[in-house]
Every structure is written in C-alpha cells, then in structure tokens.
Amino acid sequence: RDLHSFPTRRSSDLEAFHGSARLVQVGDKRLEVKVPAGVETGSKIRLSGKAGSGKDAGDLYLIAKVQPHAVFSRSGPDLTRELTITLGEALLGGEVEVDTLRGRVLLKIPGGTQSGQTFRLSGQGMPRLKGDGAGDLYARVKVILPPTLAGRQRTAAEEFLRQIVQPN
C-alpha cells in the first residue's frame, strides 16, 4: 500500500464537533472526504484505494488541521471556556446559563465562588473520535465587578465590607 499524506484545508471546531464532508483536490482527482465527529489536528483520515489508479492504487491519508474556536480551547476531547458571572452570583450563588457546543445548559453556582474557580460539565466536550461518548467542558469563572460606585452605592459597599472578614 502506498502512503500519501496531504494536509486538508483547515476545519473549524464546529465541523470537528459535528463531523462534515469536504471536497479535496488531489492531483487531477476531486475526492469527497467524510470528516468524522471528534477529529482533531493531527488525526489521519484514510481513503482506501484513492492513491494512484488501477490495481496498484493504495490508500491515501489526509492529516486534519482544526482551527481554534473563538470561545472554547481544546485538549483532546475536553473543552475549556471562560464563564463570566456577576458579583451577586459569586457571593450568593445562583443558576447561570452556559453556552456549550451542544446548546445551553444551566450551571448551579454555589455562594462564595471565587474568580478563577473551574466547574466541570460532564459530557459537554468534544465527541470522542472512536464514538465512545464525549469529553468534558470546564467552565472557568471570571467575576465581573460593578462599575465605579458613587453616593449611596459606595456607602453601602463600605458598610458591607466592614462587616465581612476577607483574607488577603
């Protein structure tokens, strides 16, 4: 068997999530390639009997290159994203909507959540290439503070801060 390797055009993470079909020009041939869900940069896609012609045709291997997503970073089947929450949600807790590649899910934020804390959403990552479930999504919290306080807001905040013990 012949081993020919041609890099494919860069696929997006959404195509890698759902799978897709691509047309690839190899020499004078146009081939339709099925990109499986869960493919990642460096994954090999084998096209049986597409290298050469006739009875000597070997297999053609394409090497996938996946473009990074604007919101999610990827490590194998696992995804990470930043999740902004309000000061009130961090202090008192609450439920927040989290956009995933599968859709929106609700995440319960416990009171006292710190900026930088990470929550795992099981099964909300990329599909595994061999079809064995999905990775996880890790949502890293970023607490958004209110803008500059003035007047009664500032007085209320100062009173609140006098009443709590906060480590450095």
Q: What's the pLDDT, averaged over the residues?
A: 86
- The spatial strand order of the largest sheet comes to 6-7-11-10
Distance between the termini: 65 Å
Shape: rod-shaped
H/E topology pattern: EHEEEEEEHEEEEH
Largest sheet: 4 strands, mixed
Question: Which helices and strands appear, and what pairs or packs with what?
Answer:
Elements: E1 3-7, H1 13-18, E2 20-26, E3 29-35, E4 44-51, E5 58-63, E6 73-75, E7 78-86, H2 87-92, E8 94-100, E9 103-109, E10 118-121, E11 137-144, H3 152-163
Parallel strand pairs: 1-5, 7-11
Antiparallel strand pairs: 2-3, 4-5, 6-7, 8-9, 10-11
Task: Supply the key terms.
single chain, 168 residues, mainly beta, 3-stranded mixed β-sheet, 14% helix, 42% strand, disordered N terminus
Tell me about this structure.
- It is a single chain.
- By secondary structure, the chain is mainly beta.
- The protein has 3 helices and 11 strands.
- The chain has helices spanning 13-18, 87-92, 152-163; strands at 3-7, 20-26, 29-35, 44-51, 58-63, 73-75, 78-86, 94-100, 103-109, 118-121, 137-144.
- The strands form 4 sheets. A 4-stranded mixed sheet has the order 6-7-11-10. Strands 1-5-4 form a 3-stranded mixed sheet, with no helix packed on it. A two-stranded antiparallel sheet has the order 2-3.
- A hairpin with a 2-residue loop joins strand 8 (94-100) and strand 9.
- The radius of gyration is 24 Å and the shape is rod-shaped.
- It starts with a strand and ends in a 5-residue tail after the last helix.
